[in-house]
Amino acid sequence: DRCAAVSSDPALRSFERPRSLQQWKGDKGESEQGCRMGTFSALTGSMGPGSYGHIPLAAQCGFCAMAKRSWETAPVKRLRGGSADPFFEGYDGLSRSKDFGNDGHIYQIEYAMQAVKRGLTVVAVKGDKCLAIAVERRPVAKLQIPESMRKIYQVDAHIVATAAGFAVDAAPIVDRARVEALTFRLNYEDCPSIEYIARYIADVMLQCALDNEKRPYGCSLLVTGLDLMTGSLVVKDPKPYPVPRMFVCDPSGTYKEWKAVAIGRNSDTVHEYLRTHYDDYRQQLEGKDIQTEERMLCEFALGAMTQVLNIQNGTNVELATMTAERGVRMLLDDEVQVMVDNLMQQNEEFRNHSSDLEATTRKTKQLEILNAEKHPHAD
After folding, report:
1. How far apart are CA 315 and CA 323, in angstroms?
2. How far is CA 305 from CA 120, 132, 238, 270, 354, in A?
3. Burial (CB count <10 Å: 0-12, 13-18, 19+), residue 130
4. Helices 267-285, 290-305: crossing angle, 10 deg rounding
5. pTM of the model
6. Virtual torsion, Cα 170, 171, 177, 179, nearest 10 deg
7. What is the edge-to-edge ordering of all strands in the sheet holding 260-263?
8. Which of 89, 127, 293, 308 is 20 to 30 A off residue 226, Cα-Cα?
9. What are phi and psi of 168, to 5 degrees?
């Protein structure tokens, strides 16, 4: 036995495996690191010039066992929240990016939501038989073609999607949604519903939100389209014609249906405008034909955009409508310009009317004050 032969040699008995690490510390009077370095120096110093690389087996076993024990007993410093070092308080330096924080939040998903809030503003409203989408368009160079900067994507013949946030993250999601829509048609010989595509997009986002090797998508997708609803527990009175539906898919993997929605920067201000005026517009749309409803919805979407944008011409906004008769229709810049001019004229008339009403109210109050001074004892 080679180990027995080596360990029986008196010259190598000092390199036998130690019984414990404390014994080595007591014999040598060194620390853990000094003990390891001293042992390695003793091993290499005892060998001759021609025996480099031929360390006795017993010495190898003793050195490896001692190094392993030293590594197991060495303390590990953690850079986590609640550490003894106040510099790292609230910082999770060694944990994975998708772990929960001390306050129960997943910060990577919240950062992705902040990226959505810094994106271009998107407004969508739906009526009884039509829906309209308005998207903010960045200023383009003089020699650049504006149509090349489209933010509205057609997923299927009856489905349209638009995004707020990182456009590079939205493009691959839309491509996967198109493939899924074609696969659904091939398998079932029918068009997919709007909720089916929205659920698929939310699942794609959820996969990246749960994967530790990938970051969440930095965009939210607005999926709109027309569905022929059937009777169910949710839809008790379905319409005999296709109805518009809208879903918003967030980076967290959730999707929600809306009547009127805004995503992107200053979306809270636009939401307040939509919440205030949506019911009035729906009452005005009752009994209107499809062309009038389409025009009024576009003006309503543009009116919501003017709450956060200074729209001067039709190149600042991209408009699209969807109906069962015409399908998806992208409005030309000239058509958008006409609507912008009408909207500016209505706003000017409203301001003039408001100023006249304020002047009339002010004169009425002055007359009441004069009348009270002339007749102080009048009831």
Report:
1. 23
2. 11, 12, 32, 7, 22
3. buried
4. 160
5. 0.66
6. -170
7. 260-263, 122-126, 130-136, 317-323, 327-330
8. 308
9. -70, -25
